[in-house]
Amino acid sequence: MDPSTVVHFMDTDDFLKHWQGHRALTRRVIEAFPDEHLFTFSIGGMRPFGELVQEMLGIAVPMVRGMITDEWTEFSDGTASSKKELLRLWDADTKALDELWPSVPKARFAETFTSFGQFTGPGYEQLLYAMDNEVHHRGQGTVYLRALAIEPPAFWER
Question: What is the dihedral sign for C-alpha 49, 54, 55, 60?
Answer without folding.
Answer: positive
